[in-house]
Each structure stands twice: as C-alpha cells, then as structure tokens.
Amino acid sequence: MLSPNSSPDRAGADTPEDQNKDGKTVNEIMVIDPDTLELDLNHGRIGKLENLEPLTQIERLYLRWNLIKKIENLDTLVTLRELELYDNQIVKIENLNCLVNLEILDLSFNRIKEIEGLDNLQNLEKLFLSSNKISKIKNVNCLQKLTMLELGDNKIRDIENLDGLTSLTHLYLGKNKFSKIKNLDTLVNLTCLSLQSNRITKIENLENLTKLTELYISENGIKKIENLEKNTLVETLDLAKNQVKVIENIAHLQELEEFWMNDNQVSDWNTVQNLASNAKLATVYLEGNPVDRDPMYRRKLKMIAASLTQIDATLCR
C-alpha cells in the first residue's frame, strides 16, 4: 500500500509493484478517493503518470521524489491549480495544455533542457524550473500573471526574453553562467532579485527596479558598490564573496536592514564608517574581510552602527 499521507479524506495509491531496468521497485498510481482535492504521492517510487482520470475535483497534486520520466495523462485534470513534479526524471515540458487553471508548476530537479509547452497556462503565477539543464530563457512571455520565476542552477548564459513578465515580483537566476545584468527594464514590479553565483563583474541596469527590497548578488566578481541610486527601498543587500574593497554608495538606502559583505576585501575602517548613515541597519556580515582581524572588530562595528542587533552569525549583547 502506497499512501504517504493516508487518511480517510485523502486520496492515496495502491501498487502492483514492478521493477525498472535497474531492478528497483516501481509503483503504480491507484486512486482511492476520486473526490479528493489534494493528492500527496511524494517519495512513492512512482514510474508513470496514469490512472488519474477519476480525479474530477483535484486541485493539488504532489509527486515529488519519484521516478517519472514523462508528463502525460493529465488531460482530464482541468481543475488542477498546483502541480509538483520536483525531483523526477523528466526531460521535456509537454502535455500540459488542458491545465488551464494551473497556478503553480514545480518542475525543479529534473533533466529539462528547454522551456516550452507553457502557452496555455495563462493563469500560472509561480513557475519553478531550478536545477535542470536549461541554457536559454524563452517561451515565458505569454505568462502574463506570473509573479515568481525560479531558474536557478541551470546553464543560462544571458538574461533575455523576460520583457512581457510585468507582473513578476520574484526572479531567481542564481548559479547560472551569465556575466552581465541586463534586459530587466520592464520588470518594474520586482521586489526580489537573486543573481548569486554567476560571472557578474558590475552592478548595473537596475534603475527601473525601484520596488526592489531584496537584492542578492553574492559569489560573483563585483569590485565596486554602485548604480543603486534608484533602488531606495532595498532592505536586504547581499554582496558576499565578491571583490569589493570599499563600502560606499549605500547612504541613500535608508530602508537597509541586512547588509551581507562577508568574504570581500574591505581593509579600511574609514569605509566601514559609511554604515553610520543607514539608521535601520540591524545585521551586518563582514567576517572574511581584513577588518575582521581587528581585536576590536565587533565593538567598532557596534559603535559605528548603534542599531545593529547582529554582527556576522552572532547576536549583539
């Protein structure tokens, strides 16, 4: 019996067991309660999407951590609002055209190389495609209601083809292969932008993103804090593991609460003094910079920014 979260009012699955080519057990979906709104079959060793036709009211279908290779047999699930196929063996986005009410789609941790097959998903609000093999951003401009797009840990070389996503508030592009921040001008509603672990050497082209509250650019090759004049609402600024030597050009960030600058090259306390202008600053990470070797490191930081409640990983006393 396979029913990871079985209860009288939930659907489950019973499985005649089979074996795949590796000799591992593969299970089959069998619907127990056709009236269920939510079906959770995570960690089920399910090898194929099938036998789902009785689910006439299903809204949420969770199939994380299975052995599914192909998206198929979902045509009858028109009521579906959330579909999770995280961590399977899927190579192609396909056969989703009938899911016109879908709001959340998670295909992270699969083997997908191309973004496609999404045109009919006009109600989609959140799309997760992290940890795949995608090399190019495309075929998403049709998703006018999209507010969150997760494309981290892929092989993307350029930020492009996002112009139509004007409702987007959260964009995650960390751990890819692009070297320049560009083509974000139309995303005026972005509040969170993550560009960690790329090949960026300059902060630029963010002037239209005036609603940003979170900006993550750690683990790049940035040498200077600059071009943030229009981003006055930023509360969290992550520049960890770059090559910055001077803390500058942040006095105007009056909403700044968290400033992550660990593992850079700041050696001059005179530039650290610039943090005194950020009255709401609560957390600062500066460990891994030359200044942290000063025996008075924590005391000096607290004197500079009296509002601090945390220095590095330790709370202030």
UniProtKB/TrEMBL annotation:
Which PROSITE patterns does the annotation name? LRR (PS51450)
- Mind telling me which GO cellular component terms the entry cites? nucleus
UniProt-annotated location(s):
Nucleus
Which Gene3D superfamilies does the record associate with it? Ribonuclease Inhibitor
- What InterPro entries does the entry give? Cilia_flagella_integrity, Leu-rich_rpt, Leu-rich_rpt_4, Leu-rich_rpt_typical-subtyp, LRR_dom_sf
Highest taxon of source: Eukaryota
Sorted keywords for this record are: Leucine-rich repeat, Nucleus, Repeat
> Where is the segment annotated Disordered?
1-25
| Coiled-coil segments | none
What family is it from?
Belongs to the SDS22 family.
What does the protein in this record do? Cilium-specific protein required for cilia structures.
Report the protein name in the record.
Dynein axonemal assembly factor 1 homolog
Upper lineage = Eukaryota, Metazoa, Ecdysozoa, Arthropoda, Hexapoda
